[in-house]
Amino acid sequence: MSVITIEKKILEKNDLIAANNRDFFNEKKIFVINILSSPGSGKTSLIERSLARWGKKIKFGIIEGDVQTDLDAQRLDVFKVPVVQIVTNGACHLDANLVRDAYSSIEKEEIELLIIENVGNLVCPAGFDLGEHIKVVVTSITEGDDKPLKYPSVFRNSSVLIINKTDLLPHVNSSLAKLKKNALSINPSLKIFETSCVTDDGIDKWCKWLKTQINKNESSTFY
Amino acid sequence: MHELSIAQEIINILETNVPTESYRQVSKVKVKIGKFSNILSDSLQFCFEVVINNSKFSNTKLEIETVPLIIECSDCRSKIEIEPPVFICSNCGSSNINLITGNEMSIDLIEIND
Ligand SMILES: Nc1nc2c(ncn2[C@@H]2O[C@H](COP(=O)(O)OP(=O)(O)OP(=O)(O)O)[C@@H](O)[C@H]2O)c(=O)[nH]1
Ligand SMILES: [Mg+2]
Ligand SMILES: [Zn+2]
Description:
Chain A contains eight helices and eight strands; from the N terminus they run E-H-E-H-E-H-E-H-E-E-H-H-E-H-E-H. The longest helix of chain B has 15 residues.
């Protein structure tokens, strides 16, 4: 019997493509965010509100990931920004290769902020690096305040948490304070925003922070 | 669900690391899966059996070693195992901790009966 010892990461291929994507985005000075949440927490709505807030003042590019249909991409058509839809046909997450292919169809456009909306799922997408600079996890107040404890890895691996649908706070029995406490217990360095895509509460704060990140990215140098 | 992608990726790695003529002699592939990697061992085992049966490696078993979630505390320097979702040092209570192990998803070795 012979044994081949290889010590290889199972997702090595994905990680390699993700690293290439990241190098490419750095070279082009494109700031890239990967948005993750359960189905329906408001990822597309947050993108809509951000596009409405900034108009042409930020050069957006959007990659939409869904299991089926291009409904989310259609919703963004009115904003006249480069949008690509990835339909995963059942796969529960995006991977670096899908993102690379999707990006190639809009690469002729001038883009400074690329937003990738991942497939609605709090588990699977967390392990797949796409080449993004930051992961943003969205949870809505209607999902209860225990989500960080139940799905710790996505909260641990994200830099930003957006708590959405705050307009519904009076109607649900989950507590904003408890939700924040739970999230920070998993990841004390999370930057937290509270938003409502209905009343636009908190959207401006989030949008301004985004702009700051883009400016930082544009003035940084990579080697 | 992504256990299926992981199982498929393991087979892709077998294909690139084993000479074609030895495919049928591969008796075992051993992987290390961290407790914090979002992979369910039972589900991975099940998915592996499904994909391996549709591959050229029909005689290969999957062995999974589970790697505990171990942290190092930046305040008291202890290295201890913790249980998610509690992300604090159980020695001093600090949340200033770094993950040492627990995120693994790697292939350790491949056994060939030749
Ligand atoms: N009340 C309220 N409803 C919201 C808010 N944000 C989004 N919604 C509603 O929630 C539903 C889902 O929103 P989407 O933006 O489609 O959520 P998503 O995360 O993109 O969903 P998937 O892509 O399917 O995972 C829609 O009916 C939105 O109108 C909010 O802040 N408050
Ligand atoms: Mg959506
Ligand atoms: Zn300690």
